[in-house]
């Protein structure tokens, strides 16, 4: 029997609800990776799959994955065997699959393992806990959920081996929550059914993924076609230029105040972070809201 190719972008992968897609369906995928709307458009074939985004990050994870798994395994002698890239399916859900980085077996119950790298350790909580980014928790919960079918291994624990920004190895543990697993299944099934209804497209949001998807959605231009806008959208678009100037002014003021500092805080909360990129230093927003006066006093 030929092996199933579930590499991202393969024909089989595009038709299945895999772990990375679950995060987008739930609305917890990083906004520059995927949104519910961008995934919906791709799975319907309305836009192509890979737009070449996050290549560096994907490459980094690919090259470091095996080393991280080996490092983790060295610290777990109770794990007699580590099998890489298992394909997890469930006969009850022929439209679903997951590919955790590894499965460990030995003394005790089997477990799934994902190897991750971090550019910002602030996204991660206390080692040994399940305080991990929501999109990673969703992916591993999905893999464990699929294993609980007939003839499945019924995996109840998943580990994450994390290489921190300071090159330390941390470990996080996620326990299977059956109620959450079934809720995720219901949402994924509803999403899959919606693909047959062109009017069921998820609403527009402010994510980069949706913005990129809409840019690619209509590559042709009908020179004879005109669309009448409603007043709110027309005014919002006219106001964009003014808002862009305001954004640049705020960013410039913040850069001036920060100087060569890495972090900017307010009331004990990190507001912005400077980090290097290929073109110099970029300014990254961190907090979604600033603390209230009461919260500041509590801090």
UniProtKB/TrEMBL annotation:
Pfam families: YqaJ
Domain YqaJ viral recombinase intervals: 16-147
Stored Gene3D superfamilies: 3.90.320.10
Entry-linked SUPFAM superfamilies: Restriction endonuclease-like
Protein's name in the database: YqaJ viral recombinase domain-containing protein
Entry superkingdom: Bacteria
């Amino acid at each position: 029997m030929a092996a199933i190719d579930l590499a991202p972008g393969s024909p089989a992968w595009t038709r299945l609800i895999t772990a990375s897609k679950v995060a987008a369906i739930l609305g917890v995928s990083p906004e520059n990776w995927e949104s519910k709307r961008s995934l919906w458009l791709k799975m319907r074939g309305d836009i192509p799959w890979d737009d070449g985004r996050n290549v560096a990050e994907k490459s980094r994870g690919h090259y470091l994955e095996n080393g991280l798994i080996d490092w983790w395994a060295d610290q777990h002698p109770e794990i007699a065997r580590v099998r890489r890239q298992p394909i997890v399916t469930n006969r009850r859900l022929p439209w679903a699959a997951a590919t955790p980085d590894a499965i460990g077996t030995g003394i005790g119950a089997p477990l799934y393992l994902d190897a991750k790298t971090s550019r910002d350790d602030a996204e991660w909580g206390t080692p040994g806990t399940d305080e991990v980014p929501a999109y990673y928790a969703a992916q591993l919960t999905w893999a464990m959920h699929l294993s609980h079918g007939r003839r499945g291994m019924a995996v109840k624990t998943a580990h994450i081996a994390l290489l921190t920004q300071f090159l330390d190895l941390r470990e996080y543990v996620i326990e299977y929550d059956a109620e959450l697993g079934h809720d995720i299944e219901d949402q994924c099934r509803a999403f899959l059914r919606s693909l047959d209804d062109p009017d069921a497209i998820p609403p527009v949001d402010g994510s980069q993924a949706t913005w990129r998807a809409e840019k690619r959605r209509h590559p042709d231009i009908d020179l004879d076609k005109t669309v009448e806008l409603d007043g709110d959208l027309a005014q919002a678009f006219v106001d964009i230029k003014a808002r862009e100037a305001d954004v640049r002014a705020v960013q410039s003021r913040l850069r001036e105040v920060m100087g060569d500092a890495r972090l900017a805080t307010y009331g004990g909360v990190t507001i912005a972070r400077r980090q290097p990129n290929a073109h110099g230093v970029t300014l990254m927003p961190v907090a979604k809201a600033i603390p209230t006066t009461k919260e500041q006093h509590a801090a």
